[in-house]
Each structure stands twice: as structure tokens, then as C-alpha cells.
Amino acid sequence: MVYIIRFNCKKIILYIAITCILSVLLTFTATASLGLFSSTIDPNQLTDGVYNIVNKQTGEYLDVFDTIYDEQGTVYLSKKTGMSGQDFLIKRQDDGSYIIYSLGEDKDYSLYYQSDIMEGELIAKNENVTNQSKFNIVPVQNENSDKLYYNIKPAFMSDDKLTLDISSIKGKYNFTLAGLALENGSEKQQWQLVKVSSESLSISSGYINVRQGEIQDIYTKLTPKHLIGNMEWKSSNTDVATVDSQGYVYGVSEGTATITVTCGKQTASTVVKVTNLPAYTWYSQHNMYTGGWNAASLQNLYLTTFSGERKLFFINGYRTGADWMDQGCKLCSESMILHNMGAVLTDGYDMRYDETNNLEADPFTVMLANMGISGHNLGSIRVPRNPVNVGHSNIDPRFTVNGNSITSREYYGNSLKHIKELLDQHPEGVLVGMRNSYANRTHYVVFTECLNPNDPYGNYEFRICDSAASDPALGDNVPFKESISYLSSGYSYRSIFMYSVYNIVE
After folding, report:
1. Which has the closest alpha carbon to 367: 399, 402, 400?
2. Among 149, 200, 369, 390, fewest CB within 10 Å belongs to which?
3. Could you count the other beta carbons within 10 Å of the beta carbon of residue 48?
4. Using an 8 Å Cβ cutoff, are 498 and 445 in contact?
5. Cα(149)–Cα(194) distance, rounded to whole angstroms?
6. Rounded Cα gap, residues 60 and 67, in angstroms
7. Taking the CB of residue 269, how many other CB atoms lie within 10 A of it?
8. SS3 411
9. CB burial string 66-88: b at 16+ within 10 A, e below
10. Is the Cβ–Cβ distance between 190 and 140 less than 8 Å?
């Protein structure tokens, strides 16, 4: 009997061991089939964080209108843009529900629904967090996919059958909206949560001018955006430039300083040049990284005209005809002068910073004005014409200086004396057009200062800002005869055929 008992015990132990192993294997297989060992999220560990919310059926991303375009901030669907409007901060509440915050604007908007909501009701955003801001996020069991999907349901309702769906209603700009519908198991009602886990921090440009005694804001892009309160700023030389906790740089004295911003393990920096010249802005049409403006954020932006011509807006370096900005010297020059004046685009959207209205002048915002477009959903619409073919009648009405309108006036001829006189009245700069008849080329630069105003013979020399330069040493407020246009492109003072100035209308 003892032997038999021992034998049975061994069999039982062996059986239990095999059962445990099989159980572990089955658990692993089942878990793997749900995608929990991939990059997707364990439904029981949906931690606070920033997510993109992607529809299973269409692959489109949940996005939210800025309130300037849509008063309610309606939720819609669009292709992936990488902009912060598609980033949502999801925070778990003590009762197990979730608040979904939209990070597309500076304010802390949360998605919400009406308390008396009906099927087909749209989802929007609200500045105030209420019970109608709470959602239940419920995993969907799906054996046919290696990804994990969720139903997103309003939590503060007696009817738990409603869930987030694609609405049949079209919103502004003909976008497909998101709303609530009765749960039916459709793939339209299933959403993947893709965590925005990689943090990144960048400064708008690697090279920025600041006028002595004045303040300039340094723009940054931070992902995820809700970490903005953790950013720390520092100047390498406070005798030249100081920077406050908000990224505002003050020019103390002439020279250069490196401004560095850190957020956690992420660091970005820019070289700030402080000058006392009356005009100081320099933008390059060929350098997207240290060309004086935030062009790097536009490196993947294609613009297509109504006629079907399609090009990248900006390519770093010189590739003749490959990008719109290759011919953008006049657009850059106009932008320099407008920026020196303190002009802002009163009505528009800057996709680089998620900023709306009163946008500072640079080649991107001047292009928006030139096209007569807002900048919303820019990559998927057609622009009316060549975006760098400047028209003053398009640009002037959309920019203001301290609330005042501006106008421009053109002069033809080649009078260095007149240009000097105009500079005395307009220290923000004079736009000068030059023509190289031999090479059949035209180029535009900004005259910023007369270097010998007392020359008795009128042989005036000027300092210029030249967008053709990729190196600041050849374009950033340099004497004309040290510029790339003079040294490499064959332009001289005799090449001048027109010049123009801006006027502020009180």
C-alpha cells in the first residue's frame, strides 16, 4: 500500500507540474495573441500618459479643432500629422474612469459630452473638467489582431451602451467628426491607444538675432507637451544675454551667448547674437537649421498648387528647383523687414508651434499671408499658386504692427542716395531687387544700414541681409561686398533695378 501511495503521489505531482507548465504556456499564448508583449498596452495597466487615439477601421487619428476655428473644439479624425492636436493626456481617476485632455492648445481642455446626450451626439472639449469629462476605457477582445483596441465610453451616464464612433456628420473643412453611437461591435468603434513615449525637445532655430536692450521669445517644441512645466533655461553668458523661465531672451550687450533649455534628459540649445544694429533679422532660404528661423519643422511639408505642381517647401542646402524656397529670396526678404517692424499675422495658424493668430513674421507666416490661407491642414490642401511668388496686395492686409495696418511702396531706378534716404526713415530695412542680365537671374536682399553716410561723393556702401547665404558670415547683416550675392552670384550695386519700403498706417 505504501508503494502504491508513493507511486500515485509521483503521478499526481507530475500531473500537477505538467498542468502548470501547460497553463503558463497557454497564458503566454493567450496574452501574446492580445498583443500584450508587443508595443501595445496592458488593459489592466493603462497608466497616465500621452497617447494618440487611432481608429481601427480607418487608421485615422483622433484630433480636435482649435477653438478659434470651431467654438466647441469639436473632435474629428485626420491622417497622422505629428502635431500636438493629436496628442491626448489620459489620466485615471479614483473611481476607475479616465479624463482625456487635449494637448493641441495652451489651455487644459478635456473632452466632454452633454449630460442629456443622445445617440449621434458629437464629442467636443471643455475648459472645465466635470463629470461629463469622464470616460470608461474598456479593452476589446479580438483574436484576429495582434494589437489591442478599446471602446471609449461616457462614464457618467445611466446608459452604458453608447461608445465613441465615427459620425456621419461632416464638420468644418469637410472633416469627419467623432461622436457617440450604440455599441455594435463595429471596427469604427474600436480605438488603439499608441503611447507617445519618446520625449523630444527642440528650439526653433540654431541661430537667433536679438537686438540689444530688447526681448525676444525663443520658440520650442516639446513632446509630450504636458511636460512644459519642467523646462529649465540657462544662458552661457549673462553679460551678453539673459533668459527667464519662460524662454524670453533679453539682449544685454553686443556679442554671442548660447541659450540652453533642458527638460528631463532632453536638451536643446541655440546661439543668440546680440546686436545694436537698427535692423538685425536674417533668414536663409537654404539653411533650415541655423538659418535664423524654424524651417526644420517644415522639412517634410509638400505644397501642391491648383495647377498640380508639387514640391517640398524647404530642402536644406542648394538643390536648384527642388523646393519652393529655392526661389524664395523675395519672400525671405519681405519676412526680414516685417519681423524687424514687429509685424504679426493677425489671422492664421502656425503648425510648427500650434499657435493661432498674431503670429510673428517669418518666411512661413508670410507665405500663408501670400497664399491667402489660414495654415490649417496645410499639407493636404492645394495652394492657389507658386507660394513664394510674392504679391504685396496679398501680404500687406494680413499683417499689422501694434494694431496698425501697413502698406508697401515700390521705387524703380538705381539711386543709392535715395536708398540711403529711405533707410534713414525706415531703419527696419529696404527691400532691394537686383538683376544679373548676363546670367538671366533676379535676386532680392534687404539693405539695413549705410556704412559711410557722410561720403561727399555719394559712393555709399551698405550692410545687407542676404537670404541666399547658408552661412551667417555671408548673409547676416554683412557689408554688401562681403555677401554671397557679391562674392559668388555676380551682383553689384549696378544690378539694382527696384527697391521698396513698408509704411505703418496709423
Report:
1. 399
2. 200
3. 11
4. no
5. 10
6. 21
7. 14
8. strand
9. bbebbeebbbbbbeeeebbbbbb
10. yes
> Which tens digit of pLDDT belongs to each residue from 159-179?
678 899 998 888 776 788 999
pLDDT number for residue 116: 59
Cα gap 194→192, rounded to integer Å: 6
In which region does residue 185 sit, left (phi positive, over 0), alpha (psi from -120 to 50) or beta (all else)? Answer: left
Rounded Cα distance between 73 and 75, Å, is 7
Long-range contacts of 136-141 (CB under 8 A, 24+ apart): 136/96, 136/97, 136/98, 136/160, 137/46, 137/90, 137/98, 137/193, 138/43, 139/43, 140/190, 141/34
pLDDT per position as a tens digit, 249-272: 999 999 999 999 999 888 999 999
Single-letter amino acid, residue 160: D
pLDDT computed for residue 235 by the predictor: 97
Q: How far apart are CA 384 and CA 457, in angstroms?
A: 48
Q: Which helix (H) or strand (E) holds 206?
A: none
Q: E strands, 212-337, where? A: 215-217, 220-223, 232-235, 241-243, 248-251, 255-263, 266-275, 302-305, 310-312
Cell of 397: 492686409
Vertex 131 angle, CA 125 and 136, to 5°: 85
**CA separation for the pair 402, 396 (Å, rounded):** 14
Distance CA(294)–CA(166), nearest Å, equals 35
With contact defined as beta carbons under 8 Å apart, do 432 and 446 qualify? yes
> For residue 352, what is the DSSP state?
T
Give Cβ neighbours of residue 167 (< 8 Å, ≥ 6 apart).
120, 122, 176, 177, 178, 179, 181
Whether pLDDT at 35 is above 50: no
| Contact yes or no for 314/408 (Cβ under 8 A) | no
DSSP state letters, 416-436: HHHHHHHHHH-TT-EEEEEEE
Round to whole Å and give the CA distance between 115 and 107.
Answer: 23
Cell of 99: 479624463
Pairing, β 134-140 against β 149-154: antiparallel
